[in-house]
Amino acid sequence: MKSKVYIETFGCQMNVADTERAATGLRKAGYELTASAEAADVVLLNTCSVRERAERKVFRRIGEIRNEAKRADRRQKPLIGVMGCVAQLEGETIFQNSRRSILLSARAQPTAYPR
Length: 115
Known about the structure:
This protein is of the alpha/beta class. The protein is built from three helices and five strands, in the order βαββαβαβ. The chain has helices at residues 13-28, 54-71, 85-97, and strands at residues 4-9, 32-33, 42-47, 79-84, 102-105.
């Protein structure tokens, strides 16, 4: 069974292009992309720090994903990954505030994801 990945993009047009590159690499690595965070084993948030309060939006979204999984009573909670500008700028804070496994990538490089 393939692991299912959901990618949510915040911000700039560059991030949209990065998300497409990451999705292509993930498919090639054997992951299946899904249209919702609820159906995913891995949720990747591709972030942009240019917009106001970008960091808060990311932290809020991480909490929402975790709460959705808890309400759905999922046995296996999704692995949450943060990539892009916010991961690069706020990586240490994300790790400190995370109560569960989280992965970070400063750039959306398709070759950087585990198989």
